[in-house]
Here is the input.
Amino acid sequence: MYDANGGVIASVYSRDRTIVPLGQIAPIMRSALIDIEDHRFYQHGAIDLQGTLRALTTNAGAGTVSQGGSTLTQQYVKNVFVEEAGDDQAKVLEAQRQTTGRKIKELRYAIKMEESLTKDQILEDYLNITFFGEHAYGVEAAAERYFSVHAAQLTAPQAALLAGLVQSPSAYDPVSSPRLALQRRNRVLAAMAGYGTITRAQAVLYQATGLGLKESLPQEGCITARQGEAFFCSYVEHLILQDRSSGRPCPRGRSCGAGAACRSAPPWTRRASRRPTPRSASTPTPGTVPPPPSPWSSPAPAGSSPWPRAARTATAPTRPTSTTTPTGSWAAAAASPPAPPSRR
Here is the structure.
């Protein structure tokens, strides 16, 4: 939110996320995630038969679900569905349900994703959309939240901690559950040593260290506005979230048009990656992937990045500008939404 002179009054958003290209994410962070979640990521397609069979055998022996068989691409698709659910807890839980139907749906989209994007693009998008706990979405926000560094500056122990969070951000939260977070981090370090990312001697050395947190609290909301501006900020936010034509409240992350029901915010403000687009808007023919509940307005060309061009601009050596998701401020600028930015 800006004043008449272009100065920032406050940053108001529903997702604390700063999108960074893969080149600005430490290689050790990429390796840590792959080692603990899908160490054959670059060798298989959308489904890893070896990993699936191993998980089935392990779970059958344990009598419970102790190991997952989803590839990073399948996990990424699930994260997209969770992102689409927004703040609707019922929809979030539905997107996370462990059912055969949901797994088949995720797999179908994952297959299309593997056909459209390279492995590096999928990994980049995964790291930018994944929730790491403590209101941090994406690896850049997580690196700043827990260690006050950029994603490019992460060390091996720090990367191991973040990679361990994606399985269960709440259970392994290093702020509220440091003991469990330490155990999970050390398990990731052991996996990294097992697959040759680091040596076993390094793993032992890192496992003997503490979490080393250096927290940075997110600066969000009208409460952060300068003296005299907080009331104006709150007033504008209220107008944006309220359907002034009918007086109906509009939930966060939604926009309301004159006389129309609340609808999802424009896709170019959602900061999420695209999913495969069906052949046509009509009912799909048997055997094709049905139209997904996508937050994206149009597909990017095959082989190009699914992130908006503006979000992928290389940043200066200084702290990158946050590209967090707004809560509908676009609606105050004009009666109709602007055209989406061009895509690569």
About this structure: Residues 17-207 form a domain with the Penicillin binding protein transpeptidase fold fold (CATH 1.10.3810.10).
